[in-house]
Amino acid sequence: MVGGQKPLNTSTPCAACKLLRRRCAQECPFSPYFSPHEPQKFASVHKIFGASNVSKMLMEVPESQRSDTANSLVYEANARLRDPVYGSMGVISTLQHQIQSLQSELNVVRAELVRYRCNQDQNAVTATPSMVNLRGYPPVSSSICSQTASESVDFAAVSPSTTLTNMSDNKGTIRPWKS
């Protein structure tokens, strides 16, 4: 060390120091998280948050979490550049809407499956007097099959491994089967 200064990093400067056009000190707060091989990461973070704020944010978290923090800042900055108004919240909102849409679609498919299974079980009962289900499916509860198509069935609580026997309560909603 010369004159009490920190030793300089003799290797390639990190992306932050390159962008800021300064020498990369060995204790540079950015070098472990912003590789010189990916300069666009720090460029987007710097554009949104500023180098000083990024440095402060990285120093506020424990060292074990700094890598995750830097990755989160990169993700948020890129999302903010794509969507300046909503940023990552726009992505989260879109994904939540997709989940709701797919859940509704899954509920419709499950209701169709129950109707199909009810029809199959009713046909099997008339065909086999012993009431043995030859297809390997558990028999469907008659209360589920007696529901009309206009009644709503809540399949949100039904997992794929749940059997359909003893799943209907008196309100017509589906509940998980209990042993």
TrEMBL record:
Keywords assigned: Coiled coil
Domain LOB: 12-113
Recorded coiled-coil stretches: 92-119
Superkingdom field: Eukaryota
One family name in Pfam for this protein: LOB
InterPro entries documented for this protein: LOB
Protein family according to the UniProt entry: Belongs to the LOB domain-containing protein family.
Annotated protein name in UniProt: LOB domain-containing protein
